[in-house]
Write a structure and sequence with these properties.
- By secondary structure, the protein is α/β, with parallel strands linked by helices.
- It has a single domain, classed as 3-Layer(aba) Sandwich (Hypothetical Protein Ychn, Chain: A).
- The protein has helices at residues 20-34, 65-69, 78-82, 100-107; strands at 8-13, 38-43, 73-77, 95-98, 112-116.
- It has a five-stranded parallel sheet with strand order 4-3-2-1-5.
- It is globular and about 50 Å long.
- It starts with 7 loop residues before the first strand and ends with a strand.
- The mean pLDDT is 91.
Length: 118
């Protein structure tokens, strides 16, 4: 019997883009999209900095931007983003602010929840 890939996947990412596995988690999300999964990436704490391009570079160079352009949903913890200076004007098209309560609701609606917190 062949195992079918999960259809709805929620990935929680807390660490900053400088964290070595950050790029690996984004590649995992990209691979899940390629397999036809509906992927939601929830950014919280320092992970919200992945919405920002390197200083002076176009927004499209932000680490998370390619996932948005491929159809991933990106939810951003508003309370942890704002204390890091990330406001509504910093959200790329397709990303949205959410709360940690909404994260709990999202986790209850997916086939697979992947928390990357350490």
């Amino acid at each position: 019997m062949t195992e079918v890939a999960p259809r709805r996947v929620l990935i929680l990412l807390l660490r900053s883009p400088e964290w070595t596995p950050y790029a690996t988690v984004l590649r995992l999300a990209d691979a899940l999209l390629s397999e036809g999964c509906h992927v939601t990436l929830f950014l919280m704490d320092d992970a919200v900095l992945g919405l920002l391009a390197p200083h002076g570079k176009p927004r499209e160079l932000a680490p998370v931007f390619p996932l948005l352009s491929r159809g991933a949903e990106v939810a951003v913890c508003q309370s942890t983003a704002e204390v890091r200076g990330v406001g509504p004007e910093d959200l790329p098209p397709g990303a949205r602010f959410e709360t940690q309560v909404q994260l709990g609701h999202l986790a209850g609606t997916v086939d697979l929840f992947l928390p990357f917190v350490n």
